[in-house]
């Protein structure tokens, strides 16, 4: 059939997926060719200044140029690039979009700002791909650098509710967790901030109906690697792994007690993630608080109690973007 490219530029990282799609005996077979990530910290300082830093834009330019070169080498036919959180908020966002249009000129596209709702829907579609339909309803959580998306829905894509909230690893670190390791006071203030947004999630999204909770993106996958004691970052070991709340609480506490330099020395920690990892951990702690409260209420009312565990998915918004590109190509073919 063809090859598709998906690029996601968030607050902390820029990532790319190249997928080969072929039709064999009437069935689409998808082969992942490349899945890469660079920490570019596009959102560095945006929370305070309201603009994208020149150095951050240059880091994105360098990474995206490399991605475009690889997509040309792999003869990618269709590309979609999405931009989230930091680029939505920046006063000089036009500089960013002009740069992406220049680099992706071969495909006639530029980065597209997507809403929190679309970001959640794309993440959901990718994250649940390797689960079974009967494991739903699913609650998919994507903890990013600037925001966290929470969406509840069915395997077939039916969405029951979603919300994007401004709590992410970079945002919390820059706003609250300035020391390394952070002080108890800093962590407490950050927890209160997260708790407030988790209340909004619970009011807007039917999280109590979820049968399976799925966590995707770097904070979750790195925690899984740490929990398993992996010597290297191994996506095959991380994908579909389980993080039980009780054990994860202990791991998160140890992360918050560890300085960034020591975290960075762990071979499973991607370069550039260690200095904002604490922020993502505080977000996940707050989400566990929310789900534990939901479970306690369900138990008191003798309703079904949701399992207190996260299932970790290596698939995410990139896979959702590719699925959308495939849908568009099939739709054109039927016209």
Q: How are the elements arranged and paired?
A:
Layout: E1 2-9, E2 13-24, E3 27-39, H1 46-49, H2 54-73, E4 78-83, H3 86-89, H4 93-103, E5 112-113, H5 116-127, E6 138-143, E7 148-153, E8 159-165, H6 169-175, H7 184-204, E9 212-216, H8 218-228, H9 235-238, E10 242-244, H10 245-256, H11 260-264, H12 277-300, E11 309-313, H13 317-334
Parallel strand pairs: 1-4, 4-5, 6-9, 9-11
Antiparallel strand pairs: 1-2, 2-3, 6-7, 7-8, 10-11
Domain Ppx/GppA phosphatase N-terminal: 23-294
Pfam family, one: Ppx-GppA
InterPro entries: ATPase_NBD, GppA/Ppx_hydrolase, Ppx_GppA_N
Molecular structure report:
46% of the residues lie in helices and 22% in strands. It is an alpha/beta fold and 335 residues long. The strands form two sheets. It has a six-stranded mixed β-sheet with strand order 8-7-6-9-11-10, sandwiched between helices. Strands 3-2-1-4-5 form a five-stranded mixed β-sheet, sandwiched between helices.
A few lines on this structure:
The protein is of the alpha/beta class and 335 residues long.
Kindly provide the radius of gyration, computed on alpha-carbon positions and rounded to a whole number of angstroms.
19 Å
Q: What proportion of the residues form beta strands (DSSP E)?
A: 15-25%
Unreliable stretches: none
Tally the beta strands. 11
Helices, by number, come to 13
The biggest beta sheet, please?
Answer: 6 strands, mixed
Would you tell me the structural class of the helices and strands?
Answer: alpha/beta
* Mean pLDDT over the residues: 92
Q: Helices and strands, in N-to-C order?
A: EEEHHEHHEHEEEHHEHHEHHHEH
Shape: globular
- Percent of residues in helices: 40-55%
**How far do the termini sit from each other?**
17 Å
Strands side by side in the biggest sheet: 8-7-6-9-11-10
- By oligomeric state, this entry counts as single chain
């Amino acid at each position: 059939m063809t090859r598709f490219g998906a690029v996601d530029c968030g607050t902390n990282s820029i990532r790319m997926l190249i997928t080969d799609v072929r039709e064999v005996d009437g069935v689409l077979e998808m082969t992942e060719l490349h899945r890469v990530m660079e920490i570019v910290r596009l959102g560095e300082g945006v929370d305070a200044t309201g603009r994208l830093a020149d150095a951050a834009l240059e880091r994105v330019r360098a990474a995206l140029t490399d991605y475009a070169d690889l997509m040309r080498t792999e003869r990618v036919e269709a590309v979609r690039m999405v931009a989230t959180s930091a680029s939505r908020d920046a006063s000089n966002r036009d500089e960013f979009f002009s740069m992406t249009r220049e680099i992706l000129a071969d495909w006639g596209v530029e980065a597209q700002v997507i809403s929190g709702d679309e970001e959640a829907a794309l993440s959901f579609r990718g994250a649940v791909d390797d689960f079974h339909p009967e494991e739903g309803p699913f609650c998919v959580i994507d903890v990013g650098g600037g925001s966290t998306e929470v969406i509840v829905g069915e395997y077939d894509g039916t969405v029951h509710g979603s919300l994007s909230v401004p709590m992410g690893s970079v945002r919390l670190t820059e706003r609250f967790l300035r020391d390394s390791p952070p002080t108890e006071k800093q962590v407490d203030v950050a927890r209160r901030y997260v708790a407030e947004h988790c209340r909004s999630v619970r009011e807007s999204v039917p999280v109590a109906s979820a049968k399976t909770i799925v966590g995707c993106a770097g904070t979750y996958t790195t925690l899984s690697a740490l929990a398993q004691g992996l010597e290297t970052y191994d996506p095959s070991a991380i994908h579909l792994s389980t993080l039980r709340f009780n054990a994860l609480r202990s791991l998160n506490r140890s992360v918050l007690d560890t300085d960034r330099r020591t975290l960075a020395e762990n071979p499973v920690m991607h370069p550039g993630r260690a200095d904002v990892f604490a922020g993502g951990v505080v977000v996940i702690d707050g989400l566990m608080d929310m789900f534990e409260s939901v479970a306690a209420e369900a138990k008191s009312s003798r309703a079904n109690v949701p399992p207190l565990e996260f299932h970790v998915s290596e698939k995410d918004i990139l896979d959702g973007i590719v699925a959308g590109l495939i849908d568009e190509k099939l739709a054109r073919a039927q016209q």
